[in-house]
């Protein structure tokens, strides 16, 4: 996501620096950035890229797009990027990122947001965007408000359906309900959206999991509209049949999963508010052995296992 939107903004003429690591960083520094997209391909032969925030220094805007399990560490390490007037735009999957960033850098610096985007890292320095491009940023005032508007204008000029919302907390939960449900069922079934919704039994399961997450949202005070589960099913039906949630791609690649911050959060919030979450609870439990990567068949403490 960071590579895609950074590439779009750099191609639009904004001064963009990429904070990356490993093979991806090496490719950015050596070859630049390649983005393949139905909205138009991008080839940037030279980009500013570093693995050290202090080499970049204070910036006007930080697009915070890291995986949920990296939030706390990234929030600490990004301190050299944050000056007195820096705006941090949180574009993560879950619902906890903005508050964690506010704890680290102050609420005045943070603008919550959410994104509908189907993209993946095809290889170091190579982003493939296949469908949907809709960032939604929270309304802000002052300098932060001017920067939010400038970003949205730049994204719109590049073909994105970017928008600003006065109810960003509700928008974040709308995305969260859809994403954590699609991720849970997709990973449990090891299938993209098409086969899941084509089968009547797994389709019923998807709808029930959506309704479960909606009930939890309402119990936390987020008033999602009536019929939101049905609306979300229509949203999923409109996706291309081979669409996969990012967590399924991570599972297939043997990477860490955002599971504790997706279905795990639904289960935790449901337990705190007395809302049963049997479907998300099952998916959370069945996927837990994979949350830190491929589980070892024989572990160091297997001798302690007993009936």
How would you describe the overall organization of this protein?
This protein is an alpha/beta fold and 307 residues long. It has two domains: 2-166, Rossmann fold (3-Layer(aba) Sandwich), CATH 3.40.50; 170-290, N-(1-d-carboxylethyl)-l-norvaline Dehydrogenase, domain 2, CATH 1.10.1040.10. It contains 13 helices and nine strands. Strands 2, 3, 5, 6, 7, 8 and 9 form a seven-stranded mixed β-sheet that branches. Strands 1-4 form a two-stranded parallel sheet. Helix 7 (168-189) packs across helix 13 (278-287), helix 9 (200-219) crosses helix 12 and helix 12 crosses helix 13 (278-287). It is globular and about 50 Å long. The mean pLDDT is 94.
- Poorly predicted regions: none
Q: What form results from the Cα inertia axes?
A: globular
Work out the radius of gyration: 20 Å
Q: What's the count of strands?
A: 9
Question: What structural class do you assign from the helix and strand content?
Answer: alpha/beta
CATH superfamily of the largest domain: NAD(P)-binding Rossmann-like Domain
Quick check: average pLDDT?
Answer: 94
Instruction: Report the CATH topology name of the largest domain.
Output: Rossmann fold
For this structure, what is the CATH class of the largest domain?
Alpha Beta
Task: State the end-to-end distance.
Answer: 45 Å
Percent in helix:
40-55%
Keywords summarizing the entry:
307 residues; alpha/beta; Rossmann fold; N-(1-d-carboxylethyl)-l-norvaline Dehydrogenase, domain 2; seven-stranded mixed sheet; two-stranded parallel ribbon; globular
């Amino acid at each position: 996501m960071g590579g895609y939107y950074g590439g779009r903004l750099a191609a639009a003429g904004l001064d963009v620096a990429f904070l990356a690591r490993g093979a991806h960083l090496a490719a950015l520094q050596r070859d630049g950035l390649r983005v393949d997209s139905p909205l138009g391909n991008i080839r940037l032969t030279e980009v500013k890229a570093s693995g050290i925030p202090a080499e970049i220094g204070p910036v006007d805007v930080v697009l915070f797009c890291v995986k949920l399990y990296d939030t706390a560490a990234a929030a600490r390490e990004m301190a050299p990027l944050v000056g007195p007037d820096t705006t941090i735009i949180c574009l993560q999957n879950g619902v906890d990122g903005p508050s964690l960033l506010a704890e680290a850098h102050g609420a005045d610096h943070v603008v919550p947001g959410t994104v509908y985007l189907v993209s993946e890292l095809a290889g170091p320095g190579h982003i493939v965007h296949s469908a949907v491009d809709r960032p939604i940023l929270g309304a802000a005032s002052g300098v932060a408000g001017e920067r939010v508007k400038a970003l949205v204008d730049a994204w719109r000029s590049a073909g994105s359906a970017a928008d600003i919302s006065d109810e960003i907390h509700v928008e974040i939960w709308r995305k969260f309900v859809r994403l954590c449900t699609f991720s849970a069922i997709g990973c449990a079934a090891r299938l993209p959206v098409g086969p899941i919704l084509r089968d009547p039994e797994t389709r019923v399961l998807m709808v029930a999991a959506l309704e479960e997450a909606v009930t939890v949202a309402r119990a936390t005070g987020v008033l999602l509209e009536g019929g939101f589960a049905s609306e979300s099913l229509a949203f999923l039906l409109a996706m291309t049949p081979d669409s996969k949630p990012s967590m399924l791609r991570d599972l297939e690649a043997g990477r860490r999963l955002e599971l504790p911050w997706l279905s795990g959060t639904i289960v935790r919030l449901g337990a705190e508010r007395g809302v049963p979450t049997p479907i998300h609870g099952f998916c959370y439990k069945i996927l837990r052995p994979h949350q830190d990567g491929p589980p070892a068949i024989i572990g160091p403490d297997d001798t302690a296992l007993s009936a």
